[in-house]
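Weekly structure sync - notes
Attendees: PM, LS, DV (DV joined late)
Agenda: review two folding runs queued last week.

Item 1: First target. Sequence and structure tokens pasted below for the record.
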Amino acid sequence: MKLTEAPNCPYCGQKMSKTEPPTFNLSDGLGWCTPYMYICFNDECSFYVKGWEQIMVNYGKTASYRCMYYPDTGEMDAICVYAPDGLKGQIIEE
């Protein structure tokens, strides 16, 4: 299901932001296969807030994740961030 507008985050209900993919690629080296994605940047979002502890407990690293959607497929995923400002510089203003 192709997304034509920014969806609301399923965890907090906030409208997600259109965002350029990060400059780093996935492990397959093929990139993100999309010119943009939708990411929830609500710092109060339960998915993001709980992610800090989950990653520390499971991997011993300081990081969290944010909810994201691929616009061409409507597929939901998580994207890792290493600081509260992570990926915020990639937001595309409409």
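Item 2: Second target, run right after the first with the same settings.
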Amino acid sequence: MRRSLVVLVTALGLLLGWVVPASAYQPVRVVHAERVQAGPYGVTVGFSTWPVRAMRSLDFTFAPDGGIAGKSGVLELIGPDAHYTVPLARHPRKREVWGLDTESLRFAGNWTMRFTVDGPAGKGVGEFRHLDVLEQPGPPFALSWSVSTLPLLCLIALIVVAWRRTRTKVRAVAA
């Protein structure tokens, strides 16, 4: 009994030893940054993918000069046929800055990011204009969804054919 318990605990320990590092989040890698002046505050805007493409998830980071302690902020994303307002909060994987984790901009075109930062030096508003968002990568959604649903439709057809065949055999046996 003790041996079984020791083997079980050892196996569980080895399993968790491999699983825990694998489930750790990857750090945010900023590949492009822009500077914005929001009143008395300088803000560095970081992108994890550059150039930005519509409907493609990426991380945005917003690092005000002097850190985020004692400051609050609001971000407005203004684009073609879109206007979002988001309170700035800590990035879940890069806790020392504000950020948006795996967000995507829905439409291609020219976007503006408007920052409102409130802190010890007062309130400041700044804009990062002319953020060109390119077309969505890959095939159009209608084509990708059509191709991806083909296996499901084949499975449904297979189930219907199998159901009909077994139903007729059950009727023949019952008669």
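Discussion on item 2: Helices lie at 2-22, 141-174.
Action: LS to circulate a short write-up before next sync.
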